[in-house]
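Data deposition worksheet. Section B asks for the primary sequence of the deposited chain exactly as it was used as input, without tags or linkers unless they were present during the calculation. Section C holds the resulting structure in token form. Section D is free text for depositor observations; keep each observation to a single sentence. Incomplete worksheets are returned to the depositor.
Section A, Depositor: J.P.
Section B:
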Amino acid sequence: MTTSEEISFRISQILAEVEKAIVGKRSQLEYIMAAILVPGGHILLDDFPGLAKTMTANSFATAMGILFKRIQFTPDLLPMDITGGYIYDRAQNNFVLRKGPIFANIILADEINRASPRTQSALLEAMQENQVTIEGTTMPLPDPFIVIATQNPIEYEGTFPLPEAQLDRFLIKMPIGYPSRADEKEILKRRLDRKSEQMHLKPVASAESLNEMRQAVEEVYVEPDLQQYIVDLVAQTRVHRKIAVGSSPRGALALIKIARAWALIQRRAFVLPDDVKQFMHLALSHRIILEPDLWGVQRATSDVIEEIFKSVPVPVV
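Section C:
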């Protein structure tokens, strides 16, 4: 049986390895690590180009020693380019299955909103049920299976906004943010020191150890009062005057799952209200639709979520 000390050591090893490539983003890396510790912990990285979103996904896959595939989403991408399909093999005189890049542990869906809705929908079954259906045949995906998608908020021309059903399947949506001046200088220094574009990270975990860590998350305790607190927070999104469409129950599940993972990262066997607060914005911002008159207001979603958080009494745990 893996002890909590061994799990904490593994997590710190993974984060330390990723930080060899990603400078000055410890909090963001911990959030991503928390999502990865949850089955179905898919992540949407929403930020400007050039902020190491792709490198972050690749670095986590390398550090965890699991299979990584990158899919560049473009307007002409087809569903079978993701899932694969049957092709005719002349040598065998029959149709054989050629699996697509989705058959990996971590999938980087790069610029996901550049593909058509039809192509985006190829990920729906995979993200929800960890399987794909090709020509009527259902096949399981590797375990663990994680989608890390990126989209650039400033590039609207030639893009297709993700539908609510697709957004709802991401556990969290988060930005990366610009580095500080000191961190940016460190990025330059590391590039000059290694004299190469390539970064050489080493695996410090495996698919088996990641599944063990996920199982440990299932042992983290959540008090009934705290469960009710999460329900009240999500329910408030459905009645708030500035919100047209509130969060589905999947939002409550996302909060409780990632709060447990965060508690484990913090070396606790129980969840605190602060763990829930930590992920309110990341887990709910993409699950609500504001009233139309607020669509053009900057930070409107963040402000509304903050109002909801302040309106619901925090339980004493």
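Section D:
Residues 220-311 form a domain with the Helicase, Ruva Protein; domain 3 fold (CATH 1.10.8.80).
Residues 244 and 291 are 5 Å apart (CA to CA).
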